[in-house]
Amino acid sequence: MSIDTARTAVIVVDMQNDFGSKGGMFDRAGIDISGIQKAVGPTARAIAAARKAGIKVIYLKMAYKPDLSDAGPPDSPSRIKHHRLNVGQAIAAPDGTQSRILVRDTWNTAILPELAPEAGDVVIYKNRYSGFYQTDLDKILKRTGIRHLVVTGCTTSVCVDSTIRDAMFRDYRCLLLTDCTAEPQGEGRSNYHASLLVVRTLLGWTSTSDEFIRALETRPTAVGDDPQN
């Protein structure tokens, strides 16, 4: 796969405290966040290399309005599936401030500090798994002439997968960096590996952060599937 850096954006999916920090929604629910935390370092390096190459960085954040009016009606799958994770519940954040689970503009939905957005980056709230559902993502990408998406984030089989699928349906060319994504569900990381297989077979391409960075440093070149993942 070859990409034109002038028409490329890095998408960072849901790398926020609720999913990747101690005291966040996943951690409070007893979900293992070690894989997400492990993906932070490679993601930070990939983002830094992208910025250096002039590639736009776009953050997606899963979060609801304070009144949960965008979480769906009471009988919707979205509302039901999130209810067991105590979405909307008021908590004390690790820094002592008052916060709420998966609610906008709180500690819970802030981007992990190691991956904090910088001036010129784009941050988009979403209320469903896909970054394209009822957001301005497609409009922003089209307005800036973006055709290639380098995708990172969590979780691999849910929000990352959903965003890549919707991107592919809109004819974007997606490259998933395998060490910049993580999946806490599925025995033996089976969901993670299944998702990678589907992406590289049908929805796009896969690579690693090291290959991506090396490709940027030796442009023009190509980045492609990592046969080891």
Give the strand line-up of the largest sheet.
5-2-1-6-7-8
Give the low-pLDDT segments: none
Do you know the CATH architecture?
Answer: 3-Layer(aba) Sandwich
Q: Provide the CATH superfamily.
A: Isochorismatase-like
Number of domains: 1
**Main beta sheet strand tally, sense and closure:** 6 strands, parallel
The CATH class, by name, is Alpha Beta
Structural class: alpha/beta
Radius of gyration: 17 Å
By DSSP, the count of extended strands is 8
**End-to-end gap:** 17 Å
> Which band does the percent of strand residues land in?
15-25%
Q: Tell me, what's the shape?
A: globular
CATH names the topology as: Rossmann fold
Helix coverage percent of residues? 25-40%
What would the keywords be for this entry?
8 helices; two-stranded antiparallel ribbon; alpha/beta; globular; 8 strands; about 230 residues; Rossmann fold
Structure in words:
44% of the residues are buried. A hairpin with a 5-residue loop joins strand 3 and strand 4 (98-100). The longest helix is centred in the first third of the chain and has 19 residues, at 34-52. The strands form two sheets. This protein has a six-stranded parallel beta sheet. A two-stranded antiparallel sheet has the order 3-4. The two termini are 17 Å apart. The chain has eight helices and eight strands; from the N terminus they run E-H-H-H-E-H-E-E-E-H-E-H-E-H-E-H. Helices cover 34% and strands 19% of the residues. The model has no long low-confidence stretch (mean pLDDT 93). The protein has a single domain (5-64, 111-217), classed as Rossmann fold, CATH 3.40.50.850. It is of the alpha/beta class and 229 residues long.
